[in-house]
What we know:
The protein contains four helices and three strands. It is mainly alpha-helical. It has helices at 12-52, 77-88, 95-105, 113-128; strands at 93-94, 135-138, 145-148. A three-stranded antiparallel beta sheet has the order 1-3-2.
Amino acid sequence: MPHAFQTRPDHPAIHTLVRLHADLGAKIQANKEQGLKLAEDMKHVEAVIRMFDPAYDVRRIAVRRRNRDNPWFKRGEIIRAALDVLRAAEGPMTTRDICRRLLTDKGVAEPTADQIRGMIGAVHRSLQGHVGRTVETVGEGMPVRWATQKCQGGTAC
Length: 157
């Protein structure tokens, strides 16, 4: 029969957990201080902008969003992989189907909804950027179905 965990104030894990807690607290404090310094730097930049143009509304400056890295594909790999999937497909495919195939090829047997959703934007944008050059939309309506553009002679490019 297994033992129940017995709490003791002199347990060896207590000292380690207290140190971990203190380290995490220090990291939180450092990030807060860094955030305060960044906010101060931002105010200085706003002041310089106002020196050049006193009527400029700095509240209209949008915060720049950072692009998240894709854990499966490096920059430029998505379009090549999507084209490979489309060339191997027997007919037009939706962006979601292409994403599922790409994730399966990368070893993700049962991709979650979040994983598929994260890939759809990247794949769809890559395909849109290549319409008329290497891919084409097939039919009308939603969802968009994609196919490789046909070269002369009826073969896929």
